[in-house]
Amino acid sequence: MKRALRLGAQAVLYAAFAAALGYFSTSPAFEPLPAGHALIRLSLNHAGQRKFECRTRTAAELAKLAPNMRAPEDCPRERAPVRVKVELDGSSVADIVAPPAGLSRDGASVAYRRLPVPAGTHRLRVSLADDAAGTFDRVREATLRLDPGRVLVIDFEPGQGGILLRHAPPAEGPPK
Amino acid sequence: MIAAASLPGPGRAALALARVESLFDRAFGERLNPWRHLGALGFHCFWICCATGIWIYAGFDTSAVGARESLAAMDRNEWPLGAFARALHRYSADALVAVTALHLAREAARRHYAAFRRFAWLTGLVVLAALLASGIGGYWLPWDQLAQWSLTATMEWFDALPVFAGALVRNVVAADQVSDRFFSLLIFLHIGLPLAMLAAMWAHVQRVSPARTSPPPALAWGLAAALAALSVAKPIALMPAADLGLVPARIPVDWFFLFPHPLMARLGPEGLWIAAAAAFAALAALPWATRVPRAPAARVNLDNCNGCARCFADCPYGAVVMVARSDRRPHARQARVDPALCAGCGICTGACPSSTPFRSGEALATGIDLPSPSIGELRERLEARAGALEGAPRVVAFGCRWGAAVAALADRGTATIELPCAAMLPPSFVEYALRAGADGVLVATCREGDCEFRTGEALLAERLAARRVPVLRPTVPRERVRLVHVGRGDEDALRAALDSFRAGLPRPGTPPAHRLPPPKRQEKRHG
Ligand code: HEM
Ligand code: SF4
Ligand code: SF4
Hints:
Largest interface: A-B, 44 and 48 residues
Shape of chain A: elongated
Order of helices and strands of chain A: HEEHEEEEEEEE
Bound molecules: protoporphyrin IX containing FE, iron/sulfur cluster
Low-confidence stretches of chain B: none
Structural class of chain A: alpha+beta
Number of domains of chain A: 2
Largest sheet of chain B: 4 strands, parallel
Mean pLDDT of chain A: 92
Number of domains of chain B: 2
Strand content of chain A: 35-45%
Oligomer: heterodimer
């Protein structure tokens, strides 16, 4: 009798442990985005232009260098930071200056932003500058309908036409 | 004499925990109480997880596009026992986290982090970190939306570090699908991290000896059955295939592993770094930040050591090593104590053949002894207190500083002696007490399996039952010796045990059936 009680109590404790495992292995559920929101991710990995132009070395300068180092041009390796602005329906949601990586500032600029936005149709304007003067000479504008839970990735690939909008729904006309 | 306040002893958290554990004693019995096997249960979960993991891997498609479908096929049982193995893999991993968390909480409550336990504590933290990393990485492999969410959040977390700055997350956002090369890296991580964890687990148990890494069979089967039943009752479900253009509205989070992601949503990536670093730093600093009273280390007395290695065999922390003889006595080896590893429990003193009180000499010395109480002090106390007993029957009660407080029993007919660990008691002291005038000897240890020094209570029980050297000699009448298992807080049970023991001892006036002659100290020196 006592043994049966004990085994019963053990069974209850095992069941409680298993139930706790089963429950917390999926619950409570988590909502990664506020209800009715879509997500814009801005992600880029782009090397800005050289900050300084190459300069031709004078003969005197060349003579001072070791024979194997006598390159006719002196090209400082430092790059310009990459700047990105994102405007949504006319107001700025991101304004980023991504410095070049590396000790000599000659690496690529990397940036990432997570921008949850209310779902719906939005006018998006992305502009990017990657030269020393900070000229926003790359611009992309679009009107998009972002449904709840949709992700739009803003990326930059000079070889693929500049500012990219990944996973973008088909373009729409201006909002009514 | 050391002041009582600075003596080691159970703290308040340990006592509260003991109350919880005593409820489990009622269901499982003391020996099988899962609270006393949490580390071993962790190993058990780990092995289940490994076995099921290998089974799943054998049928797993290692490409990003094929992974989910191969697991979906398993869930349809196109791979033998696929759905069951997948569920068991997850639940044994979850159980490992739960058991580890309880193990950590228990060791912390018992203040098991400082001094000779520091190594186990710190390596435990490494195991914990490897465990969480292994499990989170496991969630990436099905490459469904849960995987995508977890991987993205993890990359976002690491991207908060200046070295990455946003480069990692591009693996998950800057393309239409993750590359197979990157996916292979994830698979490699989920094999490599658990292996690293196993190495850390191995290191973790290096300073306990012998480590109990497998739970008693009844517990092992009980837990395995519970996990198997859960796996059948609640199979796990894949989410839809990963879609980098989508964030799922609701994520069924495995809170055992994936809790850092919702936490990061609250705190931000930098905030999560600060919280995680603070939590680990606080745990890692515990061995230095708090003052845990510590007993002085044992010392070897070569004049009384014959190199028999019993102390080496019984030391629960591997603090004794047997080394080549450093004096000119004709024994091959001698014991040596590493004070940094020594718990000061005295279990070695209880094991040493030289610890017999029947030896001659004003001051009793043994091969390996504690500075306080030393074996000589114990004999003096025993002689003084047993000699002062009045009435009948007279009882000497030995107890443990960590178990039920034996001092409360002291009265005209009861002498009490408290030890750092009950297993410091050499069985010959029991016989000596009977010869010195006691009618009975009560030995009180902690509850079974609950020894502060891991194994003392079990070793002592074996010695008294003459199953382990040094044995309680067969000539000692067993009805005059009583072993009781009573933890701190069980003082009422201890008193009841004493009363029933005393009631069963031969009545005063009856011819002493099994009375031993008074002690005669032998001239022979051991060793
Ligand atoms: C998967 C994770 C872990 C496993 C499998 C594990 C396993 C074990 C095992 C088998 C023992 C030996 C028990 C014995 O024979 O008495 C042990 C002891 C110990 N563990 Fe763990 N452990 C884990 C994690 C941790 C963590 C996270 C901590 C705390 C930070 C920790 C702290 C300790 C301490 C302090 C001891 C020594 C106990 C003593 O000195 O009596 N362990 N562990
Ligand atoms: S004689 Fe005592 S101290 Fe020496 S090895 Fe044996 S048990 Fe250890
Ligand atoms: S006192 Fe305990 S820990 Fe120290 S050497 Fe003896 S048995 Fe080992």
